Amino acid sequence: MTFRQFLSILVARKLLFIAVLLGVLVPAVVVSFLLPKSYTAVASVVVDVKPDPLSAIAYQSLMTPGVIATQIDILQSDRVARRVVRALKLTEVPLIREQWNDANKGQGDIESWLVERLQKDLDVKPGRESSVINVIYKAPDPRFAAALANAFVQSYIETAVELRVDPAKQYSAFFDSRAKEARESLEKAQNKLSAFQNEHGLIMTDERMDVENQRLNELSTQLVMMQSLSAEANSRQAQAAAGSGDKMQEISGHPVVAALRADLSRSEARLQEISSRLGDKNPQVVELQANINELRQRLDAEVRRLTAGVGVSSNITRQREAQLRGELEAQRAKVLRLKQVRDEGAVITRDIENAQRNYDNIMQRQSVTNIESQATSSNASILTSASAPVEASFPKIPLNIALGLFVGGLLAIGVVMAAELRDRRVRDIDDVRELLGLAVLGVLPGAKSTAASSGAQRQRLLGSSKSSTKAA
Q: CATH number of the domain at 34-174+377-396, please?
């Protein structure tokens, strides 16, 4: 369906459309004017999110997600509502007592009945991303609505002060007794530490422990070095015992051994040269052979002497290692004893620290509660006071008329379309095309058409005919 078809249907059934629209709009307007008026008064309070100067420790983080919700619950509580009833003396108003008698026939508590009635018309909403709380009250009388909104705000502030002061008064006596017990515990722990120090004849400091640990580390380092030297000396001694002492670096590199080996090499070279030239029986060859044998004996003797020195050095190294091991064990035992004594003293010291911390906390809380018990202000204050509204908040006549027009228009369109579907008629050229599936050649003018409109329709007819001929 095209928009032109839709408009032609609405024009054809305009009486039905107007009847349905008025059938919805008129009752909405009439009801809006007949409904009793209601006025809304708004007062607001701001919750201070800064640390309280009287209890900065107890309220270090006031702005938590549940704080504003808690304040809203307090505002909507029966305690605040009862304070409002008593502050405004509503139970003494004749009209209210008459309404209570009509509702409950004089039975029950008028104050509880009033609290329930007031809470129904009360609405508390938090500010968006702020610490402001809006107190909204609706009533038929604008001045009564403003008075109730301001009374709820004032009663809430007074109740918040009571909720803060009353527990502080109760805790004050409790902290007094706890402070005496904490002081006695602290004195006992201090006396125990003094007796422990006198018994062991020392002062619990870490300086001596550091010195002894440093001495233990030094002995451990010396023992490791001596074990390395001892292992090397044992290796050299085993090599010397196996007959390979002359291959040891400290022996082969000894100046005497090196000199003897150099002389021996030169003599052997000379012997080889002379013997090849003069023969083995030559006196020079014999004498040189004797010198070579003497050099070998001296070299062997020097190697044996140095090898014996390696064994002596190995024994000395082993003795020094055993001595260091003994000193290390003694130092380790001493350090362990000191650690044990220090641990016992540390336990007593921790007891003193805990007792001192507990005593300080209790004294701090006692000071806070004493100050809080004398407080006369809360963390909430009045931001704006409610004033009597000039215009009624309910019913909203312009809004109701707009809604009546919108709903009535939708309903009227629906009724018109339903009636059209039940009795479908040809109302436009597009309807003819859809029903017959043929092109429209021309449109006959109506009885009320003017000459100009007839000429225009004739021109359209001629144009349609030419276009149809060309298409053929």
A: 3.30.1890
